[in-house]
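From the shared-data thread, chain only:
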Amino acid sequence: MSTQVRQAEDTAGKPIVVRGSVVLVEPDIELYAVGAGGMNEPRKAWTETARRNFPEAARQRLETAGFTLKPDFFLPKDVGPEHQLRQLYLLNQAVSISILNYGRAGALRNKHGRFEWTLGPGVQALQQATGADYALFTYVRDSYTSGGRAAMRVIGFLLLGGDIGGGVQMGLASLVDLRTGQVVWHNLLLDQTGDLRDPQGAQETAGDLLKGIQR
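Structure, as tokens:
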């Protein structure tokens, strides 16, 4: 398991203090089975279970850390692709990808090694919809080795002397100030053992994905 935590700092070089309430935005979660051929096959029942388990685990993690939580926010089903809130979801994903690509020290000279990313003033629409000061966006893709794939891994190890690979869990999380649009905290999680299909596994994933998030 590995994480890549980044946090915005104030003018004194200290982590920005989170002051205010937090809303957990509907997580973007999909679960798959890795077939014998190595292809990811969507599993609807697993995904639905994970979408129940993870938010509860994330809320518990945030409450333990002392955050004041607003009711979870779910995007209305009738919201079209051009709606401002749906566009905000997509913008957050784009910014997260940019952080992964360019967030390391020295990647962008104009940032001088500082963690400075924003979603812009459009986030105020989410503040108006939720009444929260911060929004926690989460994205998880999780895959699990099927019986056929497990057998192929054993055969590959015996015949080739190496592991042909199995399931993997990848998660992104970002805490955004809804008053300014600033990304104040961000994390990337990579794990080969996480499992969102059961409550205990969801607790472990939430703990790892929300590592370092504090008031």
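Strands lie at 2-7, 21-24, 28-34, 40-42, 68-69, 134-145, 169-177, 183-191.
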